[in-house]
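Colleagues,

For the teaching module next term, I've prepared a clean inverse folding example: a structure given as tokens, and then the sequence designed for it. I'd like students to try predicting residues themselves before seeing the answer, so please don't circulate the second half yet.
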């Protein structure tokens, strides 16, 4: 994300940053690309409608017909074409899986997390990764055809129309790339990240930006036709149907806009941030929200037809087929709801949050989970418990995992100072309980070992009394914390998972540039009973310097904030660290001093002081 923060600093100074480009030889046919198949890209089509009128999906007695294991969480949606499921994983691989048997056909190593849905046209697959690269991969054998470099991570899923790949990047640009050879046709620059997946209809590209704007761009020249200001970030993706654009954002509203002019029609408040695309089918808009709800809205009037509570945030796009709305939820479940009235038809528990959007084809739903598995869900398998939905160490491999309860479970806010025994190492990590709650690591230690690596003692039942395994004196530590002290490898891995989880889950972010430092705050106000923030602090100085961030306490009575390298002095919360030139550090702090109704105060600009060393 370094390039993005630099771009923000440059924009403050009145300059602009440009992306980078790298291509390889093509070997791809010059014929026009055709996107065929039941679910060839994000949202099923270039308009992101999330609807296939001719597709069939499961309606009852649903469970996993097969399970495919990757090495890390699967938070990207799948593309399904000609009997093959294409899906990426955070293990850095893109997988081609036989849709009938659940067996691997091939895999392609991107070397970086894949968090976007692939797009398939003819015999080529296009996908972006966290290394900032768009890859074109032959679907027959999984060989690379070309690659295109952007200036930052790619969280936007590509859309393919004719012979052009349209995709956004966290470098702030949306790109039009020649699908045959990977050369750039044009780029359009916005003021901040683009995580939104573009919709392309009738020669117009629509994309949201984290600068709070929805842009309509001419696909021939890459010129802006109109823009709509929402007032908050738009990481979600637009959907176009019947001459109307539907878009949701961090402000919790879904907007209806005229596709040609950008003039507003209606807006509907979901009471939670929207980070996904709406699905539109048969005059109804289906949208998930971080309010835990899925809503069905009249497409013309914006009136609620029904809503259901999934138990946790819905951060991905619904899929609609065969009269059923398929929904993934961070309640660890995948649901099938009747499209007419919202009645639950079935649900499948994966044992971990589900942040991957479902894809539907030929009577099956294909979806990944944070437990690292991809599932083929079909009728007739309702009695099968998915792998990952069991409680390891329970002595009963078929026992369902305990459901994650409401965040009020942690009202005591002990999550900021709880020791966690993982693989024989006792750690006290600021925000550690946050991750425990999210991932279910409150299961016996075997579960934690599976998540964080094998340990010396996987049989201990009482983690709170378990003594730390001393590290050999001649073994170098794998990592250090922000203070420079040695951090055990398990703690380092846990810490990064905590930081990544808060950053992804954050409903709001704010970036400021102060004294040659760029500070980005990520605020998650919803998951626990007190706000949690991750700070990313980047130095753009040419010399090392000591930086101090100072924040005012919101209230001084009650429990004080806790976090790594943070301390309280009087009515101030202070963070101190030494940063080398061009170094970026991350730090997490919980804010039990801040009442929920004052969480907006936490996104203000911190006081920053810098001392040369």
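(Answer key — instructors only)
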């Amino acid at each position: 994300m370094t390039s993005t923060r630099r771009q923000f600093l440059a924009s403050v100074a009145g300059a602009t940053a440009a992306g980078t480009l790298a291509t390889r030889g093509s070997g791809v046919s010059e014929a026009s690309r055709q996107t065929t198949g039941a679910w060839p890209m994000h949202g099923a089509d270039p308009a992101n409608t999330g609807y296939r009128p001719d597709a069939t999906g499961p309606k009852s007695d649903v469970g996993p017909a097969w399970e495919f294991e990757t090495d890390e969480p699967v938070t990207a949606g799948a593309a399904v074409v000609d009997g093959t499921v294409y899906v990426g994983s955070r293990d850095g691989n893109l997988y081609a899986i036989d849709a009938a048997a659940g067996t691997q056909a091939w895999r392609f190593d991107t070397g970086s997390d894949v968090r976007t849905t692939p797009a398939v046209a003819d015999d080529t697959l296009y996908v972006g990764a966290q290394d900032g690269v768009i890859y074109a991969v032959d679907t027959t054998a999984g060989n690379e055809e070309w690659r295109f470099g952007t200036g930052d991570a790619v969280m936007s899923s590509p859309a393919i129309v004719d012979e052009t790949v349209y995709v956004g990047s966290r470098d702030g640009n949306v790109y039009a790339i020649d699908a045959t050879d990977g050369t750039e046709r044009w780029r359009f620059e916005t003021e901040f990240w683009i995580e939104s997946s573009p919709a392309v209809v009738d020669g117009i590209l629509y994309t949201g930006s984290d600068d709070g704007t929805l842009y309509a761009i001419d696909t021939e020249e890459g010129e802006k036709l109109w823009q709509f200001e929402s007032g908050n970030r738009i990481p979600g993706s637009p959907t176009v149907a019947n001459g109307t654009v539907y878009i949701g954002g961090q402000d919790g509203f879904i907007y209806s806009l005229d596709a040609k002019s950008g003039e507003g029609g209606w807006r509907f408040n979901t009471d939670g941030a929207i980070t996904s695309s709406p699905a539109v089918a048969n005059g109804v808009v289906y949208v998930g929200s971080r309010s835990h709800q899925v809503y069905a809205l009249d497409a013309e009037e914006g009136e609620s037809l029904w809503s259901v509570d999934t138990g946790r945030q819905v951060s991905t796009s619904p899929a609609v087929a065969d009269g059923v709305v398929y929904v993934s939820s961070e309640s660890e479940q995948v649901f099938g709801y009747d499209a007419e009235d919202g009645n639950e038809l079935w649900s499948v528990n994966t044992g971990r949050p589900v942040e991957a959007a479902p894809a539907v084809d030929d009577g099956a739903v294909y979806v990944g989970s944070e437990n690292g598995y991809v599932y083929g869900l079909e009728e007739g398998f309702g009695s099968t418990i998915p792998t990952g939905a069991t409680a390891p160490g329970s002595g009963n491999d078929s026992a369902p995992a305990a459901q994650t309860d409401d965040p009020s479970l942690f009202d005591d806010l002990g999550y900021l100072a709880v020791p966690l025994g993982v693989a024989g190492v006792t750690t006290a990590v600021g925000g550690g309980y946050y991750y425990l709650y999210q991932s279910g690591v409150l299961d016996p230690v075997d579960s934690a070992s599976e998540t964080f690596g094998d340990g010396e003692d996987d049989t201990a039942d009482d983690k709170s009394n378990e003594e730390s395994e001393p590290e050999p004196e001649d073994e170098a530590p794998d990592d250090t914390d922000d203070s420079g002290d040695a951090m055990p490898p398990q703690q380092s891995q846990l810490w990064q998972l905590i930081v990544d989880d808060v950053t992804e889950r954050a409903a709001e972010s704010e970036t400021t540039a102060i004294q040659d430092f760029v500070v980005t705050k990520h605020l998650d106000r919803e998951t626990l009973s007190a706000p949690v923030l991750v700070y990313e602090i980047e130095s753009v100085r040419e010399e090392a310097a000591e930086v101090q961030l100072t924040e005012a306490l919101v209230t001084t009575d009650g429990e004080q904030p806790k976090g790594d390298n943070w301390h309280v002095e009087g009515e101030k919360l202070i963070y101190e660290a030494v940063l080398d030139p061009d170094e970026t550090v991350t730090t997490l702090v919980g804010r039990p001093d801040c009442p929920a109704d004052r969480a907006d105060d936490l996104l203000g600009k911190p006081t920053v002081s810098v001392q040369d060393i």
